[in-house]
TrEMBL record:
Identification of the protein by name: GGDEF domain-containing protein
Transmembrane feature ranges: 12-32, 76-101, 121-140, 152-176, 196-226
Domain GGDEF: 272-404
PROSITE patterns: GGDEF (PS50887)
Amino acid sequence: MWAVARRRWIGYAMACEAVAGALMVTGLATGFGGPVQFSSFGVLVGLGIAQAEMSRRIERLRRWMSGQTHINVTSVWYLAGAFLLPPAWVALLALVLYLHLWLRVWRHVRTRPAHRFAASTAWAMLSCFAASAVLTIGGLDQARLDTAYGVLALVLAAAVFELVNVVLVATGIYLYTTSRSPADLIGTWEDNAFELATLCLGGLAALAFVHQPVLVVFVLPPLLLLHRYLLLKQQLQVAVVTDEKTGLLNTAGWHELATREFTRARRRGTGSGFAVLMIDLDHFKRINDTYGHLTGDEVLAAVAVAIEASVRQSDTVGRFGGEEFVVLLPATGDTDVLGIAERVRVAVGELTVAVGGPLRISGLSVSVGVACYPQAGNTLDEVLRSADAALYRAKDGGRNRVAV
């Protein structure tokens, strides 16, 4: 956390975590909101865990494809809990379900580091506490759901939950990335429509729980279908920016991410920058001419794996076409980037590719061009041209080397 997050974000996240913990512990100790029905708490925990287990693979793929996700379908249980449980117990419900998600899903996803998980958990707890507390203070927590006051209570709880959550998350994203894009901060219209559908299911779950508890299980199938639809949408989005031969980002996908990083670096000002590696596989035409294009594709895929394994999790690798690759290294200075570039060169040189039967291809090498922002240019295109020029110097100098 201290290495990758800004100090302002760290202070904000730790403050949210402290307040969430204090509110939950105080509420549990004082009995704020009245006594809890342990059966209701247990059923909501059980349903939340069951839904997470049934959609575990879907959620893992979603988080892998999108490191910054605005939609969390567990909110269906939070809204039901806001009406059925005291505020501190709804916060505890969020904590339990988030911990389960971390243990079973998110800790396996490289885009979901522990410090971001902890902050997200605190934001969910605060949103749940606020939604339930408003009903408790307004005396609506005892309203019958088949009355106008009951409907008002559900709508109010959903509105408070969503408003508090949006403000907390948007503030966190802004402090973490300095992005001012509405889509980055609060999600797209489609994201919010999906969240509304999830909250509607939460209202139906609360209604079923009060009047006919066995009907609560009927909330699960549409919830899982909505979740699967969201995965399909993300898969289509990923397919558009993915190179089919290597699984890396294609030119368009990589350039979009690089543009975002350039914007962040420019906003951060002096002392902030990033680096770019242009990587070309030496003598690749010989491989295609000798072994065929299918073998050449296997070699490209193996080199892509070697490059990804040699860079950091925060770095982004793309294929620029042919035998050329490109790597974006956020917040990286001159000294660090040279070490990473050399690590890539050595990793490819040690590679042996099995391409069927006894055939093994070794002796591969790459030439690497390095450029850093802002030293190499004032725009992203200028940095890319500098890296490309350095790549040609490496090739002219005898290949299998790094040039700046």
